[in-house]
Request: fold
Amino acid sequence: MSSTFAIKTDGVSKLYYLGERGQYGKTFREAIVDSLNRVNPFSRFNGDGRANGHADLWALNDVCFEIRPGEIVGVIGRNGAGKSTLLKILSRITEPTKGRAEIYGRVGSLLEVGTGFHPELSGRENIYLNGSILGMTRREIESKFDEIVAFAELDQFIDTPVKRYSSGMYVRLAFAVAAHLEPEILLVDEVLAVGDAAFQKKCLGKMSDVAKHGRTILLVSHNTAALLNLCDRGILLEKGRVVEDGPIEPVIQKYLKGLRAATSRDLSTHNDRQGRGKVRFTSVRFEDESGNTIEHGISGEPLVVALDYESADNRPLLNSRASVVFFDGLGQALFNCVTDLVIHDPITLPPSGTIRCVVPRLPLSQNQYVLTLFLQVNREIEDWIHNAIELNVIDGDFYGTGRLYPEGWRGKGVLVPHSWTVEGK
Amino acid sequence: MLKEHAEAVDRLMPHLVIEPRGHWSSLNLRDLWRYRELFYFLTWRDVKIRYKQTALGAAWAILQPVFNMILFSIIFGKVAKLPSDDIPYPLFAFAGLLPWTFFSNAIGMAGSSLVGNANLITKVYFPRLIIPAAAVLAGLVDFAFAFVVMLVLLLWYQVPLGFNLIMLPMLVALTSALAFATGTLLSSLNVKYRDIRYVIPFLTQFWMFATPIIYPVSMMPEKYQWIFRLNPLTGIIEGYRVALLSGVNRSSFDWAAIGFSAFITLLLLAYAAHHFRSTERIFADII
Reply:
């Protein structure tokens, strides 16, 4: 028996219970009520009364692949395709519902830079803490300590508490520790999405160094350019399944093709709509500020929702009113962009054409959202399409500080520009 | 030759199998041992940051039991005139408060430790049992500080230390084990039911009054004393008094009570470990 593979998965599947609170996250009271109900057959409240219903989700479904030692594999897929779940299972953070994975070799996983960093501790102390959390031995950390400090370019500040670091310094230190991990197998999630461009480049350089030393790397990223540079092989996930596995280029091409199909959506055949229907939306897509179709929105960047429409007869559309409503994945309305909110005078539209709703700095954090489109002409609702298109948003530098919502708040809701002031007594 | 070499390398390579575990999975002690350095670092972190940014720093480790002792001496010793087995009341109270403060802080810290370390649990693997264990161990540092105060008090009251002191390490180990078992159980319950966070203060308050800290068991009617003995802390706290204060009242260890405490501690440890293991696999999904 020889290890011809570094990682092998066999039918790995993961089921999440979405529901109101999921299967596990009951409060004490709910657990007590539930267990009382189980005992009492005449209970008025039957177990299904709660709204957690049947919202099960197979985040991963029968995932099988083998990765040979020394291979560098990029895992791609849209938000919610199961990429992170896969990494979490392989790094033993959560366990599969079904199936089995085998790993030969020491695993280092990097799901976040700076895991366990404590703001009150100094740079030096955090190197030791973070290093040991990532699986380095004390001796290893000691021997690489100087190298890590040099890589982070932080010599003078090494005994300063990291809470006084700038966000750039923080990320540099965190990545410096991670970059000096030397496991045989490295699992990396989206960590390159933070930090400034120059440092990202340095990190990519370090990663390809690591790769040249014959280590196995499994890398999850939205950054297709980086994946093309680093990986030989790609695995494309879609709704928890492996849909493509092979050389990186064709896999990325297939991924991008899928995104385009998803981002410009033909609405002419869409049946689930309300309104009189004399004027109708025919398609919807997302664009950047220069009019290029884009696959996803980025927090803090401009987002243009382009709506093509047509009317049955060739008359101008007097007194028109259009709106785009942004909902989160749970169907909660977040905000509404309406023409007459921002344009004072009544507007007249040409009989057919394209209207564009411009959100100058997209105030949404990384997640999936759903848009509802609405068009009214002369007080008559012409077209109203619920859940017309999905919008994938990826994290961006909304606040200009390089920082994201704190852990636990990620992917929740709306980003609001704000400032703070302080006044001493 | 070459093939043999390859096989030898294979044997050295760690081989990891990931699959769904049952409710009754073993504790995986080997994994715990492998992560002993992380255990050390997490304990060190907990000690290091506990009193950062507090004006008095580590003095709090001493102030908490000392203030309680003064308060109790006035209210229960002077005003209520509770008996204290012929021991000066402040000594009596402090010998009980010393282990109690450690115990209650340890279960509080350990109980909230998993939720407090959610960022670690969702991002990196290590045996999760390390987290509550580190919280308990970090509490021992405070215990050591408070113990110095105990020695000063003994000096002040001119109480000679006796041979009984030799049992102290065993008692500390027993307290730690009981705190670890209770804290671990609370911590894993807290992940599932956040209500536990509100339960812990009540629990410690109730437990304190149910334990002979401000009063001796001997003041209770003989026929009800067994109820107090059901509390595993009773035997332990009385053990501390004998170990530290036998120079005053010539008492001796109640081995049955200590044995009973050890027995309950073992049972609780086994149950806590089982409960922790069976919910550990879903921590990352629900925390």
About this structure: Confidence is low (pLDDT under 50) at residues 20-24, 41-53 of chain A. Chain A has nine helices and 19 strands. The first helix of chain A runs from residue 28 to 39.
